[in-house]
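As a representative case, we now present a protein record of this kind.
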Amino acid sequence: KSEQELIYLDSIFDAVTRTTGESELLEIREELTEQGYLKNYRNKNKMLRPLPPLQYRSSDGFTILCGRNNRQNDKLTLKTAHNYDLWLHTQRIAGSHVIVVADGKEIPNRTIEEAAVIAACNSAAGTGAGGAAGAKVPVDYTYVKNVKKPAGARPGMVVYDPYQTAMVPVDHRRAEALRER
């Protein structure tokens, strides 16, 4: 149980290190309140809405979505994505859930590799806490239909099987070139 708690807290730390604005921090604060880590936190500025997932476009034209924090990871993977979309996450490293929207098409290897690089960059390995730029990072991927949330699991925590693993470098330039504004 303690190990699961440490994994969860590591995921919170990773999300905080990758925030780009106050609305993302507020969403993390609300999650920590829901999980019992903060007492009686009330969002005084209700005008700040959660930001949408980060959006990328692969070289092959596929939409790639990337969660910003644990709550958004859950929503993206468990509510937004469809069964045959592709789900990616760094192996045993805190980070974002990444979804390749298949739209009924077969996803080419180049798009899978680009999505894996995005997952590596949006993880503790990509922020310097768990690795350095250029380091090879293991990224697991599977269809969304194979990803499940165990009963009582913390936000962002899922299990998946079967899956494959790609070893990709942390390449922020490549990920940024694919990002849609």
In short: The chain has a mean pLDDT of 91.
